[in-house]
Each structure stands twice: as structure tokens, then as C-alpha cells.
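User: For my dataset I need records formatted as: sequence, then C-alpha cells, nothing else. Please produce one.
Assistant:
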Amino acid sequence: MAVSNPYAKYKENDIKTATPQELSLMLYKGAMKFIRQSIINIENNDMQNAHNSNIRAQDIFIHFMSIVDMENEVGKHLFSLYEYMHNRLQEGNMNKDTEILEEIYGMTNELKETWEQAMKIAKKKG
């Protein structure tokens, strides 16, 4: 019988009870975590784990591209941004280029911070 990990149980509950806005924020944070792991693994010459972490970040941007509302201009611009970020992650992964990964890390951080501000504004209005 497997021992239950309290942290994993907490995180699972956190995800199950999160709003769509909170889930998006979690995904931005997750992408940043995986990009950072990929950079660290490249620096430590651990290319397999660098690849694995990068793929997880790429998957997050694929998810964002799949859910963005393409019926409005903002959605179309977001899709293009996510597509660019995904493509750059692929390039960074293939070339094990930490400069590219740092670029996308910074862009993801800006999106995360913007999302946090939007959530605060929406909370005040709600």
C-alpha cells in the first residue's frame, strides 16, 4: 500500500478547487519552474532532464494555444505569443541554448505578473 504524500494531496486539492483564472496562474508558474529546471540541467550538463523539463514547459504553451479564444483580437494576439514562445522553447531545447530559455522565462514572468494584476483588478470589481 502506497503512503499518501500530504503535499501531493494538498496540491491535488488546490488544483481541483481552483478557478480557471487561478489555474492559468498555476500554469504560468509551472512553465517558469520547468524552464528554470531546463536551464539548470543544461548548465549541469544533464541533457536528458533538460529536455524533459523543456517538454513540460512546451506542453503548457500547447495547452494555452488550445484554449485561447480566437474569436477576438486579444485571443489571436495571445495565440501568436504562445506559439512564438512554444517555438522558441523548441529551438532552445534542440540547441540547448540557455539564452533562448532565459528569454522565454522572462516573457512568461511578464505574463504571470500581468495575469496576477488582472486577477486583483477583477477581484476588486467583483
